[in-house]
Amino acid sequence: MSTQRGSPVVDKEKKYDRQLRLWGDHGQAALEGSAVCLINAGALGTEILKNLCLPGVGAFTIVDGKKVTGEDVGNNFFLEKSSLGMSRGQAAMELLTEMNSDVKGDFIEESADQILETNPQFFKTFSIVIATELQERTLLDLDKLLWENNIPLLVCRSYGMLVYMRLVIQEHTVIESHPDNAFEDLRLDRPFPGLIKFANSLDLDHMSKQEHMHTPYLILLYKFLEKWKSEHQSQIPKNYKEKTAFKNLLRSGVLKNEEGVPLLEENFDEAVAATNSALVPTSIPSSVQEIFNDSCCTNLTSQSSNFWILAHAVKQFTENEGAGALPLRGSIPDMTADSERYIRLQNVYLDQAQQDYASVLGYVQQTLTSLGKPSDSIPEQDVKMFCRNASFLKLVRCRSLSDEYCSDKAKVSDIGMHLENPDSEMAVYVLLRAIDRFHSQYNRFPGDYDNEREADVHKLTSCVSNVIHEWGLHSTVKEELVQEMCRYGAAELHSVAAFLGGCAAQEVIKVITKQFVPVNNTFIYNAVTGASATFQL
Amino acid sequence: MEDSGSTDWPGRWKHIRRLLERSGPFAHPDFEGSPEILEFMLNNCKVLVIGAGGLGCEILKGLALSGFRNIDVIDMDTVDLSNLNRQFLFRMKDISRDKATVAAEFVNNRVPGCNVIPHFKKIQDYDPSFYRQFHIIICGLDSVIARRWMNGMVLSLLNYEDGVLDPSSIIPMIDGGTEGFKGNARVILPGMTACIDCTLDLFPPQVNFPMCTIAHTPRLPEHCIEYVKVFLWPQEKPFGENVGIDGDDPRHIQWIFEKAQDRADQFNIKGVTYRLTQGVVKRIIPAVASTNAVISAQCVTEAFKLASSCCNPLNNYMVFNDTDGLYTYTYEAEKKEDCPACSQVPQALSFKKDAVLQDLVDHLKNSASLQMREPGITATVNGKNKTLYMQSVEAIRKRTKENLPKRLSELGLTDGQELVVADVTTPNAVIFKLKYEV
Ligand SMILES: Nc1ncnc2c1ncn2[C@@H]1O[C@H](COP(=O)(O)OP(=O)(O)OP(=O)(O)O)[C@@H](O)[C@H]1O
Ligand SMILES: [Mg+2]
Ligand SMILES: [Zn+2]
């Protein structure tokens, strides 16, 4: 099949090859099926869209009521000298879509304020809205509208050398979080029947040297643990001392030559190296436990999303067949072994995982029926994927901006605590809030004019105090930071905007693909020092 | 060259002027805001960008919009379809054209007055006189070897007088790297701060499957693919006598894929796919626009700071990861007192009296602080320059490989002997002093 516009499908595999290896064909399909809205095509806005157009977002619409100015062309790669005076949204849209013919671009030459007033329905058609260059009042109106309609909002700001990003999303659930260092799910502390049977079919004392050296270390661990348990009231090694003793027990199993010198057996070395991680008791990670305890999981309704229905089913599994454990993941790490026994061992794990999955599927079907839905309304493939990722499930709930900005719901004590550290990036947040206040009072940014810079330092300082006092706090921020803010005068440096352009695009991709874990909820980056921080505000 | 007046328009540099013309508390102590700084950047400052790939394209754009106009870019490669998901200066029509030229044309067209000069070359094709002309060098490379080579090059440009470093000979090198959603950016002041070789342990070791696994006990789909690559291809010569594997030729990948599938079936191994085959054969590193944008932006910000002193540079290493939330970590990588590349301290190599040349070669390759690839070793023996071993030139390798099992003493090497070692990881040979352990 080939598409109407753009490149034929076969090329897409190759064109997007480097990213398909990160989020897969299903992630790509989600991206291509999405539509994003960008408010304001300044340097920051177009950089975000650039990083969404390149990987092939389905469509974007720019909302921008401004005309292109000389300053705009100066720091924005997607505006040209020849676009001076044109609609900024249109000019940017044209140069952005020129990059990737798979992407559909659109623009509306109106400000966000105008649209909020005359056609608020407009915003409801998007997968996510990205807001840049907005004043506080508009932002809060937009937040209210999107929150009520359950549409994610990403607020981005690039100010001098500083960067701010805030994700507003009611609930975001992730099955494929792709953790960097996933621990293995080996169940050596509570071996399942298939593993026991396979291990018992192998006899270390009666096999050739070759076989001995190629016995998978999982089997070695299992067998020596059995031995250990038989000598230690059925307990596995727990503390450092016991684990050291256990490793010595393992080492004693290495074959020796005629002179009694131990041979080099890599599988035993691997077993010793894996001992500590393999002896961590199987458990349900606390983040998954929280998902199980969430009222969305315990009180399913016909409105419940598939995620919660699946979570509910897995929870039932852990309380019954699973006996306190999640469904087995079913994969094992590579290890020194002959092909035949490695593959058999792999299948032993796969078979158990398949059994666990079948039990979960039963619960899923039961639940669906009881909710009045067809019992096959969740594809089996999805149930499988859920089971495989059961220990990596993530739930992100961000607060609304209106809560954050409302003085009796603001996270005042957290803010105060962070401000006790004079180097905390929280000061940047406070200053940005103060700058908004400055803007609403004077209708310009501090440091806009050279000759008023000094006076602006005082004005901004008093805005800072007001913001802090309204929270009922007595903290302060460093004076240098106030001065530096007035130095910036709302300057938007291209490279600082581009930094956030990358970060923000990635957050959008996470929200759209439901893979990886979005930030919760405020990200601050300081390009002076290279330091960053995340706060839940 | 055009002067700034003819191409500029009102407001063009307004944003960066704020930082360049106003002093501030976070600027370098000697910094005094003035319009001359922008003039210097526009008219005098020369920046070299290495690589016009995922990072390089972004870096060029960033420099051009940050007040840099005299930019050179080196890249040895041509545009491939799989570049287009992030290398945004290239289009379908540019496929097979050389990256440096296409990138330079694009930036020069889009940003009036910008003068990017392309070099369709390898970094190794240029000598110190070329590199010396730049104020700042930014690397957007994809290999450790190339990074180490550039590192060696900027180090070789340093002037020491009576052991004291002449600061005017320092060319700051900014280095970026990405892999998937991870990346890092660092600022190197050669001779003063940690260099690439000071922190070799930061690079993940290359995964190489043991030959016996590939040949006899495959367990993973990757093992099957490697088997076809290493054993079947040279045996069956599917595309002719002297045709090596071309990872970009779909027929080659298809052949390897099918053969790997056969082998996998034979061992009941699951999971050999076309995509995996290509990934293993080409050692593909996953890449996405966003991470490249972030790391390149950081590199450009650092160039902007270094050229203007408007803020202190990054000190000196930043890591970035946005798989789970957004994470950055900044720290000061330490300069190693005895770094083989930047310490000025002659490197001693100690061996037992009965060590053979192979031991020496293995040490140069495997030592964590050296990690050479194909070391070529020469020494002056009895007043004559003698090549002891060299791998990179086939004829010399054949002639010298008989030396490998010989004892060092047998080869005429004495205690305190100087060994000159050349390798792809450095533009200049490294001198070692041989010591016999007593
Ligand atoms: N020694 C070198 N001399 C000149 N250019 C180099 C050298 N080594 C690497 N490069 C260039 O650095 C760039 C690295 O960028 P990148 O890895 O993003 O591109 P790529 O290799 O084309 O993409 P991919 O790795 O996805 O196939 C490449 O364009 C490559 O040609
Ligand atoms: Mg590459
Ligand atoms: Zn060094």
From TrEMBL, chain A:
One of its GO terms (cellular component) is cytoplasm. SUPFAM superfamilies: Activating enzymes of the ubiquitin-like proteins. GO terms for biological process: protein neddylation. GO terms for molecular function: NEDD8 activating enzyme activity. InterPro entries: APP-BP1, ThiF/MoeB/HesA, ThiF_NAD_FAD-bd, Ubiquitin-activating_enz. Keywords: Ubl conjugation pathway. The keyword Chaperone does not apply. This is NEDD8-activating enzyme E1 regulatory subunit. It comes from Holothuria leucospilota (Black long sea cucumber).
Automatic annotation (TrEMBL), chain B:
Pfam families: E2_bind (PF08825), ThiF (PF00899). GO terms for molecular function: ATP binding; NEDD8 activating enzyme activity. It catalyses: ATP + [NEDD8 protein] + [E1 NEDD8-activating enzyme]-L-cysteine = AMP + diphosphate + [E1 NEDD8-activating enzyme]-S-[NEDD8 protein]-yl-L-cysteine. It is an enzyme of class 6 (ligase). Keywords: ATP-binding, Ligase, Nucleotide-binding, Ubl conjugation pathway. One of its GO terms (biological process) is protein neddylation. GO terms for cellular component: cytoplasm; nucleus. Residues 349-437 form the E2 binding domain. InterPro entries: E2-binding, ThiF/MoeB/HesA, ThiF_NAD_FAD-bd, Ub_act_enz_dom_a_sf, Uba3_N, Ubiquitin-activating_enz, UBQ-activ_enz_E1_Cys_AS. Pathway: Protein modification; protein neddylation. Belongs to the ubiquitin-activating E1 family. UBA3 subfamily. Catalytic subunit of the dimeric E1 enzyme, which activates NEDD8. This is NEDD8-activating enzyme E1 catalytic subunit.
